[in-house]
């Protein structure tokens, strides 16, 4: 219908293509096609809004993974922010800056990935913007969710003595990125390397878990792990006016991580403690809630693990090695500038 | 405090810098600093949401104008979308992708321009994202406004026989861009050239006018003129299931436009009829509302002019030259791909 390149499609053809791929909000709401989208927030709910911009050469390299997964991930990182507040995803907005000659098949694959992720999380595409780019691909997503105000969870409620919990396993995504950067290609299906690479390329936002934890009223603070556990825990500590102690030997690691750890001269604690992009949840709760929280983990099928303790040392995040010594983290998180 | 470059400032230093420059939403709302912003929509209002992404080398050239005006414009284009719905601006989100070594003074100037525009329109910065860019500067803004549902104006309500109105004057911004692209520098203060260039670099979003028109209940459809009058009127016609006839001799032109028109071999009708980025409003209304609408123009101090008539010819936008012949527009609007 459109030929194979963006220039035959044109801007309005691209908008039509997007519109056909996503179910639209229905009246009295209004999606793509006017100056602004019109949305109806549910009465009595607060809106939670987050935005992330992904730039080629900074956040992703198209040669490292399929475009479909890039589409999935660009919504996943935003869904993960809503998960960390316990909010229910409702709508998202998509802005694409596309280099001239960008292959139409690539755009379609990105849209397919976005549509899969949106459907999985009940989130409607309500608008956006498309334009050219003189350089690489830019994907900017703004997501909006809702929750009753009493149930929303922020970064600022942690109290000294609280347990520090994490969901799932840590370090897989950072290990997967390490493998991708060494140009490993053709990873065997079902291999440990394939697993950790997929954790980097196709992270699972913990939306249902975040909502269940928020609704349970059991937890005091929450954040998603995008910059690495220690860096993100640092944000919680600063906002809550406290500190944290993390026991590295307790960090949950996947069988694949354990299998691959042997290729490092030393055990790669830094990947589990400070590696980014796992998009697991880190939350705090009083110790007396331990059994009830374990129950939430069981009901959602996602392992939840206590990995440390909130302390009184303002802003200080200490990580303890298995031998009792202090872990010296490498520069944590990605440095943008 | 920070040195003069982005790399000494760092990502969190930049976020702090942004936070100090913009008043933040106050409890129970939550702005910058958590996984998502938390906003409280007014009861009974619909949300209007729009997003625009501006990319260096596509939408702007930093050598053509001061960074402060770039900041003003990046919010103005979004405010203009809300103006066209009659919505009242409330919050915006700002994503910046910045090349390494981007001058700190440039960032501060962009933020100053954004803050001026936000203050003028009572719009709070509630969140955003900052990251590096391997190429040019990217500014992505998502804006949210509110209005009671009955007062919101869409593109789809125009009816055959309605008058077609525009606000302000047309063609200035496109003429200003023409002058900028010819590398005119050092334009004399108060000159006609300086005026039209400023209309391109620093457009005025017609928010108050859009709200007054919406509240008046007098109008049937509205759009902002970003792609050129004829192209934008085409959107209204397609959404409303009608056509349009535009009389070029009625198009309101500024004294500066008239003064500069003489440098073209022919009178530059194409700039007034099809030039982009004036960010004026185009709206439709039944002829019996003419006097009342003129009153709204008088009250807001913005000239409003009838420039044509809605017709029954679905999707057909005809522009009539002063001699009665049909205007043949050049390819209208900017082609992105």
UniProtKB/TrEMBL annotation, chains A, B:
Boundaries of every PurM-like N-terminal domain copy: 33-146
Catalytic activity, reaction form: thiamine phosphate + ATP = thiamine diphosphate + ADP
UniProt keyword Kinase present: yes
Binding site for Mg(2+) 3: 35, 81, 224
Pfam family, any one: AIRS
Pathway: Cofactor biosynthesis; thiamine diphosphate biosynthesis; thiamine diphosphate from thiamine phosphate: step 1/1
Domain PurM-like C-terminal: 159-313
Residues annotated as binding Mg(2+) 2: 52, 81
Residue sites binding substrate per the record: 59, 277, 334
Binding site for Mg(2+) 1: 51-52, 129
Binding site for ATP: 128-129, 155, 226
EC number assigned by the record: 2.7.4.16
Chain sites annotated for binding Mg(2+) 5: 227
InterPro entries per UniProt: PurM-like_C_dom, PurM-like_C_sf, PurM-like_N, PurM-like_N_sf, ThiL-like
Keywords: ATP-binding, Kinase, Magnesium, Metal-binding, Nucleotide-binding, Thiamine biosynthesis, Transferase
Matches recorded under SUPFAM superfamilies: PurM C-terminal domain-like, PurM N-terminal domain-like
Top class in the EC scheme: transferase
The keyword ATP-binding is assigned to this record: yes
Binding residues annotated for Mg(2+) 4, in chain numbering: 35, 50, 81
Single GO MF annotation: thiamine-phosphate kinase activity
Functional summary from the UniProt entry: Catalyzes the ATP-dependent phosphorylation of thiamine-monophosphate (TMP) to form thiamine-pyrophosphate (TPP), the active form of vitamin B1.
Other remarks on this protein: Reaction mechanism of ThiL seems to utilize a direct, inline transfer of the gamma-phosphate of ATP to TMP rather than a phosphorylated enzyme intermediate.
The family this protein is said to belong to: Belongs to the thiamine-monophosphate kinase family.
Protein name: Thiamine-monophosphate kinase
Organism: Trichlorobacter ammonificans
